[in-house]
């Protein structure tokens, strides 16, 4: 069985004789076919290009809004840049043009003596050149009481030259603390007075120096029962920093226990035990890292006065009492 062949001429001739609804349907079908072909061949690609242009327009509008905001804040950003340049210039002005290691070592030694800290060694390491300055690192090892070491490190930051402290390691060493740290000082890469030729000089930077005040703080490395109150002191005379330090001045007063008194004629001596050794002290002898000096010896206690610096560099007196330990 074979299908009859479709004859379009006959179909179109007979279509004129179709009823009106059939001709309407045929016309709608032909119109839909034309629209479909036009959509596929012409309107589709044009619509895709239109969508791409709309996306590009939105991106350009966003860029325009951002650049408009930048243009509006250009004056404020210019002022901010000038302030930053002034700060950089101020920092560079604070750097010495030449190496000042000898003077710095003297300042470190002076601060150590003033705060009752024993500096066991300072190793000057090789310089490290940077873009605008040169780093001079130094490895410092010191021994002392916790609060004295903290005061010493704080005093380093108060020096006129710029010093930073890094890699701080703190560990107990007997009754004292051992501090190892890397301190860095800086100097300009150009001679003094020529470091700022590329920058317009700006205002010197001011800052509030931090003063470590341990009067109301406790030593975190000592039990609460052994804490000694550090009462505020009264103005006193500066100690003789050139005086040779005695052996007992390298030990914290907390290490000593009063075990008795000894009288030889009218002169009285205090017997203090530190570890397994007993030491004999008279009025005027020194004890502890804070320039403590014995002022009175009684049967049940001894009195001494310590000296310590305040934030302004003046010296204050702090009285202290050691009471006889009847159980020793």
From TrEMBL:
One of the protein's GO biological processes: type IV pilus-dependent motility
InterPro entries given in the database record: PilO, PilP, Transl_elong_EF1B/ribsomal_bS6
Record-linked Pfam families: PilO (PF04350), PilP (PF04351)
Protein name (database record): Pilus assembly protein
Source species: Pseudomonas haemolytica
């Amino acid at each position: 069985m074979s299908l009859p062949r479709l004859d379009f001429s006959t179909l179109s001739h007979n279509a004129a004789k179709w009823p009106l609804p059939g001709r309407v349907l045929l016309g709608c079908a032909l119109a839909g076919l034309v629209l479909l072909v036009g959509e596929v061949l012409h309107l589709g690609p044009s619509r895709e290009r239109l969508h791409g242009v709309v996306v590009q327009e939105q991106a350009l509008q966003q860029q325009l809004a951002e650049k408009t905001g930048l243009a509006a804040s250009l004056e404020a950003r210019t002022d901010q840049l000038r302030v930053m340049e002034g700060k950089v210039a101020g920092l560079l002005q604070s750097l010495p043009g030449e190496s000042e290691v000898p003077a710095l070592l003297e300042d470190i030694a002076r601060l150590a003596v003033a705060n009752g800290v024993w500096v066991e060694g300072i190793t000057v390491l090789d310089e490290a050149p940077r873009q605008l300055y040169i780093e001079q690192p130094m490895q410092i090892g010191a021994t002392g009481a916790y609060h004295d070491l903290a005061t010493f490190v704080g005093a380093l930051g108060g020096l006129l030259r710029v010093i930073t402290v890094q890699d701080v390691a703190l560990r107990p060493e007997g009754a004292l603390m051992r501090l190892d740290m890397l301190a860095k000082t800086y100097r300009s890469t150009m001679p003094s007075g020529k470091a700022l030729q590329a920058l317009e000089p700006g205002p010197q930077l001011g800052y509030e120096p931090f003063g470590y005040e341990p009067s109301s703080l406790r030593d975190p490395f000592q039990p609460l029962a052994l804490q000694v109150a550090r009462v505020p002191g009264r103005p006193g005379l500066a100690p003789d920093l050139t005086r040779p330090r005695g052996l007992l001045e390298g030990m914290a007063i907390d290490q000593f226990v009063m075990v008795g008194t000894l009288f030889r004629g009218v002169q009285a001596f205090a017997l203090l035990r530190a570890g397994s050794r007993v030491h004999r002290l008279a009025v005027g002898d020194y004890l502890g890292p804070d320039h403590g000096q014995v002022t009175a010896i009684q049967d049940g206690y001894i009195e001494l006065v310590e000296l310590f610096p305040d934030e302004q560099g003046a010296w204050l007196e702090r009285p202290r009492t050691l009471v006889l330990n009847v159980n020793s």
